[in-house]
Specification:
33% helix; single chain; binds ligand EPS; globular; 4-stranded antiparallel beta sheet; Chorismate synthase, AroC fold; 367 residues
């Protein structure tokens, strides 16, 4: 089953992912990965950093002639900004410039960022040692892993899309830019809500038999691991808590042409942690970016005196990028459940297992 590690600091040399557990025989379209990486960099409200970076993936293992071998796949994305940071972020002592390190030292933690808790936890008095890995830059390489997962899902007719529903309080798409401009002028930042939709999932991914097999739980864990995501809802989500059961559950119908079907999808495609064949619908709430130009009250960790939180170049709003990262994370979790159900060391074997299952449920359940 797909598992992966990522490594890399925001202003380090590069980002890396090692993916293990994908079947052999999957076509890898590097251009498709790069298109998605580019899309993740866009979106109104991103920082000047995005003008420096031009994210492109290099694959150095696990793929031969564009096709997976079933061996670990290594992805590398270069940080173009590295040239400006080598003497601050360099691996060896010899390349570091003490004066530059001092200049970029972070000692006034930003409320809402990992700075203070992370500094205490790892016993680091230069909070740069925390922010570099806490940075959402890591999501670039996770997005690349997600595209590979999407390519596998595509082989089974499953696709994933997303949509930004809200920026700050604004729900009118036409006013999103204006809201972001306003926040920028005020030295502030904005969060929002995005929705992810999985089209055409087969019935039976995930399971209720054990807590860690529930697909809804795994989706929530994956999505909550995206920096700044503070809330998740599946289907009708929080609204369902206010309604009686008669208005929340999707009644079941049957016809010989459609099989079992629903007229509503309040459950968001998941019942008992298992896909029920309806589209999966997940919404995520993203908090505003914690790096604010106007600065929030904080404490200088050296003097312990009051101070304004450190500010460095940052995004005003990253909800559009987060939606794409959300797609990637959902693709990864879906791929894992697909592999759990259909197994297979090669794509051909996995497809055969999938076909057998479809044949079996058609025969036994008349669908
Ligand atoms: C980020 C701060 C900014 C963002 C960054 C996430 O980076 P910098 O400090 O270099 O200006 O641009 O996002 C990315 C680099 C990216 O690729 O998405 C943070 O603190 O989380």
């Amino acid at each position: 089953m797909l598992r992966f590690l990522t490594a890399g600091e925001s202003h380090g040399k590069s980002l890396v992912a090692i993916i293990e557990g994908l079947p052999a025989g999957l076509n890898i379209d590097v251009e498709e990965i790069n298109r998605e990486l580019k899309k993740r960099q866009l979106g109104y409200g991103r920082s000047k950093r995005m003008e420096i970076e031009e994210d492109k993936v290099e694959i150095i293992s696990g793929v031969r002639g564009g096709i997976t071998l079933g061996t670990p796949i290594t992805l590398i994305i270069e940080n173009k900004d590295w040239v400006n940071w080598e003497s601050i972020m360099g691996v060896t002592k010899e390349v570091l410039s003490l004066s530059l390190c001092k200049e970029r030292e972070l000692i006034c933690p930003r409320p809402g960022h990992a700075d203070l808790a992370g500094g205490i936890k790892y016993n680091q008095t230069d909070l740069r040692n925390v922010l570099e890995r806490a940075s959402a830059r890591e999501t670039a390489v996770r997005t690349a892993v997600g595209v590979i997962a999407k390519l596998l899902l595509k082989e089974f007719g499953i696709s994933i899309t997303s949509q930004v529903l809200q920026i700050g309080k604004e729900r009118d798409e036409k006013k999103f830019k204006q809201e972001i401009d306003k926040a920028k002028k005020e030295g502030d930042s904005l969060g929002g809500i995005f929705e992810i939709r999985v089209n055409n999932p087969p019935i039976g991914l995930g399971s209720f038999v054990h807590w860690d097999k529930r697909l809804d739980g795994n989706l929530a864990r994956g999505l909550m691991s995206i920096p700044a995501i503070k809330g998740i809802e599946i289907g009708i989500g929080f609204k369902g808590a206010n309604l009686p059961g008669s208005q929340v559950h999707d009644e079941i119908f049957y016809s010989s042409s459609q099989g079992f079907y629903r007229k509503t999808n309040w459950a968001g495609g998941l019942e008992g942690g298992v896909t029920n064949g309806e589209p999966i619908i997940v919404r995520c709430a993203m908090k505003p970016i914690p790096t604010l130009k106007r600065g929030l009250r904080s404490i200088n960790i050296k003097t312990k005196g009051p101070s304004i939180a450190s500010y460095e170049r940052s995004d005003i709003c990253a909800v559009f990028s987060a939606a794409l990262i959300g797609e990637a994370v959902v693709a990864i979790e879906l791929t894992r459940s697909l592999q759990e159900k259909f197994g297979g060391d090669s794509l051909e074997e996995m497809k055969q297992n999938y076909k057998n299952y479809q044949k079996m449920i058609k025969l036994k359940w008349n669908i």
